[in-house]
Design brief:
There is one protein chain. This protein is an alpha/beta fold and about 210 residues long. The chain has seven helices and ten strands. Strands 9-8-7-4-3-2-1-10 form an eight-stranded parallel sheet.
Length: about 210
């Protein structure tokens, strides 16, 4: 089982790795759901985790708020992606929407850039803002574009993730071997065992998962 720690800057990363985190999602500003961390935080984290062989996936999100980005914001994020890849991040975490669906044009630009560096891309919980019908459609489109994982709570952000297990299983069954479904949001040390009994998935994500 891979436990992914969602890290707001570097502060708790050494402790969480020591306690069992096997992968890091690195971001800043979790109060708004995460934004792009600074160049220094990314570099220091990657330097620290390199010898430990702990993969680091960095969030690119230029601001809080919604996931609909204008051309200027997209340009900023693409520049940030380029820097993350040059620093040696193992992959990228991003989400972008347009007209109640994925912003496929922007996602394609990002995936092409990330794949140029032979790195992986993860679509974050912007996925949960899609309708149920569109979530299954999005799995097809993201898998077709080489996205590696989808981070999802399986329901509204305020819901208990245990209550969303049926939908998470349905998403996972539909994704099959094409793309991984990564449960996250409200997973912690006290409910991880129960959730794993219900889902039997390989990976879980959270800020308090270890």
């Amino acid at each position: 089982m891979i436990l992914e720690f969602c890290a707001e800057n570097f502060t708790y990363i050494p402790n969480k790795i020591e306690n069992g985190a096997k992968r890091i999602e690195l971001c800043d500003n979790l109060a708004v759901g995460g934004t792009t961390p600074s160049h220094g935080v990314i570099k220091y984290t990657l330097d620290y985790t390199k010898d430990l062989e702990i993969p680091v996936f960095v969030m690119v999100r230029c601001r809080g708020g919604n996931f609909v980005y204008n051309q200027t914001e997209q340009s900023i994020m693409l520049d940030d992606v380029e820097e993350m890849m040059k620093l040696g991040a193992d992959g990228l975490v991003v989400g972008a929407l347009k007209e109640n669906y994925l912003d496929l044009q922007f996602i394609e630009r990002i995936t092409q850039l990330v794949h140029h560096y032979n790195k992986k891309i993860i679509f974050h919980m912007a996925f949960d803002q899609l309708s149920i019908e569109n979530q299954f459609r999005a799995i097809d489109d993201l898998a077709d574009r080489g996205v590696h994982r989808i981070l999802t709570h399986g329901g509204p952000a305020q819901s208990d993730i245990i209550s969303n297990t049926d939908h998470l299983l349905a998403l996972n069954d539909y994704a099959a071997e094409r793309i991984k479904i990564l449960p996250g949001g409200g997973i912690h040390r006290n409910n991880l065992s129960q959730l794993h009994q219900l889902l039997q998935m390989e990976e879980y994500h959270g800020t308090n998962i270890v």
